[in-house]
Amino acid sequence: MKDIPNYCLKQHNTFKLDVKCKRYISFDNLYEFVLFGKENQQIFYDKFLVVGEGSNLLFTKDFDGTIINPQTKNFGILRETATEIIIQSEAGLKWDIIVEETLKLNAFGLENLSLIPGTVGASVVQNIGAYGVEVSDFVESVKYFCLEDFVTKTLTKEQCKFDYRNSIFKNELKNKAIVVAVDFNLKKTPACNTTYADIQKYFQSDNDITPIKLRNAVINIRNEKLPDPIVVGNAGSFFKNPVVNTTKFNQLLINFPDLRFYDLQNGNYKIAAGWMIDKCGLKGFEYNGAAVHENQALVLINKSGNATGKIIKELSEIIQEKVFDRFDIKIEPEVIII
Ligand code: EPU
Predict the structure, then answer these.
(1) Catalytic site residue 79?
(2) Pocket of ligand 1 (CB under 6 A)
(3) With 90 as the cut, is the pLDDT of residue 198 above it?
(4) Each residue's pLDDT tens digit, 106-133
(5) Of 194, 144, 140, which is closest to residue 162 (Cα–Cα)?
(6) Domain boundaries 2-70, corresponding CATH code
(7) What separation in angstroms does the CA of 282 have from each of 17, 121, 173, 272?
(8) pTM for this one?
(9) Which of 31, 148, 240, 330 is the most buried (most CB within 10 A)?
(10) Mean pLDDT for the chain?
């Protein structure tokens, strides 16, 4: 376990922002942490934040509290049925490692979620998603350390209240739980999800799609469109795709026949925020060292490497205003602004 005062977080946020926290705690052994947590409960009565890889955070200033960084990385097969393999992973494991390792075990389902930055713990808090799949599709249960009575508890998938980039951990259990492990229900027989337009385009006439091929396709598509946080600071999609009702959708279609959207099949439509930002002419737009990414307008980047969180936030507000003026839709950040 590490317990360090006045700690620099530059390596712990993918925007690479040079901010500090008052106290930094990391742990690689769950039982040691649970014991520490029980004996140091005051940490959780003050300001604290659990950070995985910091791939969905924007720090606008130093963090006046404790950062808790799970580094627990054990994973393995919990049990098998004739058709399913249940894999358990601790929260600190890098997300893409679980995708790679489960494929090696012939446990299928996570391949569309290849290369998403972040950790296993964060994957369920945020209900990560890409290319037609959300992690909640494969979650069986989530184990968390409860900060009300300091014991570990388990929630079933249904109890996690998963929604688009949302879960109970961002709502009722916000600041009351630290995710410590996730059980994934994976399949023994591949069922490749190739519904997403980019994937279909990638494979074209290839009919022999295997999970490994699909993982490689996703990796290639992501590398083409999305900036690598190791090269240029970013946090993936900065905004969520807004959801509109049929009336609003029909109005939009009249004014913008080339509108990009996903039909949610329930009378609502998710509008591609990246497309709207692009339509406002903001692709590549620069603001004091921060910028809108040139290949995917939903992504904001720390282009100069020296942009502050405050500047990136200002850029996001400029974008929100322009999108609102043009489409009469308020786009909301997906990234958590601290
Ligand atoms: N588009 C543009 N211009 C742009 C960006 C997008 O015209 O600058 C168009 C695309 O051509 C496409 C549509 O908008 O027709 C949607 O774009 P894309 O397929 O890239 O997906 P997205 O809706 O912008 C979402 C997720 C991504 C995920 C992709 C693929 C959200 C907020 N973002 O983006 O997730 O990788 O779908 O499934 O839902 C993330 O959450 O950090 C993330 C990267």
Answers:
(1) no
(2) 130-131, 196, 198, 225-226, 236-237, 240-241, 260, 272, 274-275, 278, 283, 296-298, 334
(3) yes
(4) 999 999 999 999 999 999 999 999 999 9
(5) 140
(6) 3.30.43.10
(7) 23, 33, 37, 14
(8) 0.94
(9) 240
(10) 96
